[in-house]
Amino acid sequence: MKIWNKAYMILLIKKVLAGQGSLWVAWLNSYVFKDKNFWSVEIKPSTSWCMKRLLKMRMEVHQLLSTGAATASSIWDSIREKRPTVPWQKLLWYPMHIPKYSLITLMAFLHRLPTKVRLQRMGVIIDSHCVLCSAEPESRDHLFLFCPTAASLWESIFSLSGLIFCACSWGDFMTQACINLKGKSLLSLIMKLALNTLVYLLWEERNKRLFQGRSRTVEDLLKAIKDVVRLHLKGRTFNRLLTVNFNLCNHWNITDL
Ligand SMILES: [Zn+2]
Fold first, then answer.
1. Contacts of 51 (CB under 8 A, 6+ apart)
2. Where is the domain boundary, 29, 49, 79?
3. Cβ neighbours for 86, distance < 8 A, ≥ 6 positions apart
4. If you average pLDDT over every residue of the chain, what do you get?
5. Residue 167: pLDDT above 90?
6. Residue 87, SS3?
């Protein structure tokens, strides 16, 4: 988001340099730059906060403009840090993904969620027991995979999709998911939606229990996952003549209206 914001600031600077685009640009030229321009105007204490930020980017923008980047996305692409893609990216980002669910799942994949085990390592808390089962330390792998609540939800989700859930390590589980959930089939779409929703709802449930003293049962959570999948796919066009799709729509209660 920070880089994306910066890309739009650079785009704004391009408009200022072109001397066109809005009344604001005309106002800048007449009342802020006066006989100077974007490159030569000084930053004064009276300069607005917004203008200061744009002026402080002059050096960087000067180099970037020589690359010819013209749109927000091309600017973003030239200033962002490029890292190799990860095999599990398509489990999170796919057509019809739910951004806030994918974001929490991304944080789980990257080990960025402040689980109790992480907070204990940082010396923030002493008790690291899982708030869902009170039996094991609350690590990422436990909370989202091995905790009886998580395992029960996974079993139900797999069963609804005609699959069998096998408990294994987080790495093996996600490797299998990457291999099996490729493509655009309804099964793949449902399972990706369910995966992201499950992680989001478990994290939400953990926070509700910790900070609000409220709790839902496994059945409540399963119903919530089923509702998300059902409402998200309701009315979409699938080949319901295929037996696999017909069964999926029945089990997940996905109607075509
Ligand atoms: Zn647990």
1. 28, 32
2. 79
3. 109
4. 91
5. no
6. coil
Q: What's the gap in Å between 80 CA and the centre of ligand 1?
A: 38
Predicted TM-score (pTM) above 0.90: no
Distance 237 CA to ligand 1 centre (A): 38
For 105-155, how does the pLDDT look when each residue is reduced to its tens digit (9 = 90+)? 999 999 999 999 999 999 998 999 999 999 999 999 999 999 999 999 999
Cα of 66 from ligand 1 centre, angstroms: 55
- Ligand 1 centre to CA of 128 (Å) is 11
Determine the distance separating the centroid of ligand 1 and the alpha carbon of 50, expressed in angstroms: 48
Number of domains the chain is built from: 2
**Any domain includes 257:** no
Do residues 99 and 206 both lie within one domain? yes
Instruction: For residue 136, report the distance from its CA to the centre of ligand 1, in Å.
Output: 6
At 185, list the tokens: 């089939």
Q: Which amino acid is at 34?
A: K
Task: Note down the domain range covering 52.
Answer: 2-79
Residue 153: inside a domain: yes
Asked whether residue 101 is domain-assigned, the answer is: yes
